[in-house]
Write a structure and sequence with these properties.
196 residues, alpha+beta, Peptide Deformylase, 5-stranded antiparallel beta sheet, two-stranded antiparallel ribbon, 4 helices, globular
C-alpha cells in the first residue's frame, strides 16, 4: 500500500467506532499507507478511517522533541534546527491515560472535512500510550499543539469529527478568539514541527 485516497465527509467510515488492532503483521501495509498518505497530504496527523479502514491506528508527524530524542538515541548530539527531516510515526491502539485540568481553545481543520476550520477546546497536556509498528507499548507526555493533534486523531477512531466539538465563543470575544487561536497555531507549528 502507498498513498490512498481520502474519505471525505459524510463518508460512513468517518463515523465508525474503530476496531482494536490485534494482528500487527496484517496491519503493517495500512500503517505504511497511513504514514505515506499523511506525508503526501501534508498533514500533522491522519487516522485509519480517513483512508477507509475501521482500525484503531493513526499516523502523526513526529514533533521536534521526538526527533531530538531519536537523535540522542543514535548518538547525534548536534541535532540542529535546520537539520530537521520530517518523520511520520504510527500510533496503534492509542489511548489517553491522563489529562490536565487546563485546556486550550485552538483552531482545527481536517483533511476529510475540507474548508471547515473551527475552534475546538482540548486538554492542554495529556499522557498517552500507544503501540508502535512492532507492537511495543510506548508512553509519552504531550503538550501544546502535539497534544491537540493526538486528541484530534484519537477522536477519529471513535467516529468523532472536529466539527462535532465546535467551540463557540461569546459574540464579543469571537474575533479575538480566532486571532489568538491563529497565532497559537502558527507558534505551535514553528516550535514543534519546523514548518514555519
Amino acid at each position: 500500500m502507498s498513498v490512498l485516497p481520502l474519505q471525505i465527509y459524510p463518508a460512513a467510515v468517518l463515523r465508525a467506532i474503530c476496531n482494536r488492532v490485534t494482528n500487527f503483521e496484517e496491519c503493517a501495509p495500512l500503517l505504511m499507507a497511513l504514514k505515506a498518505s499523511c506525508r503526501a497530504y501534508d498533514g500533522l496527523g491522519l487516522a485509519a478511517p480517513q483512508l477507509g479502514y475501521d482500525k484503531r491506528a493513526f499516523a502523526l508527524l513526529a514533533p521536534r522533541p521526538w526527533m531530538e530524542e531519536k537523535s540522542r538515541a543514535i548518538g547525534n548530539f548536534r541535532f540542529k534546527r535546520r537539520s530537521f527531516v520530517p518523520m511520520y510515526v504510527a500510533c496503534v491502539n492509542p489511548q489517553i491515560l491522563s489529562r490536565s485540568e487546563e485546556s486550550v481553545v485552538g483552531m482545527e481543520s481536517c483533511l476529510s472535512v475540507p474548508d471547515e476550520i473551527v475552534l475546538v477546546q482540548r486538554s492542554q497536556r495529556i499522557t498517552v500510550s500507544y503501540e508502535n509498528e512492532k507492537g511495543d507499548k510506548e508512553e509519552r507526555e504531550l503538550s501544546g499543539l502535539p497534544a491537540v493533534v493526538f486528541q484530534h486523531e484519537l477522536d477519529h477512531l471513535d467516529g468523532v469529527l472536529h466539527i462535532d466539538k465546535r467551540f463557540s465563543p461569546t459574540a464579543e470575544d469571537d474575533f479575538e478568539a480566532y486571532k489568538r487561536a491563529s497565532r497559537d497555531f502558527k507558534e505551535g507549528i514553528e516550535r514543534y514541527y519546523e514548518k514555519g
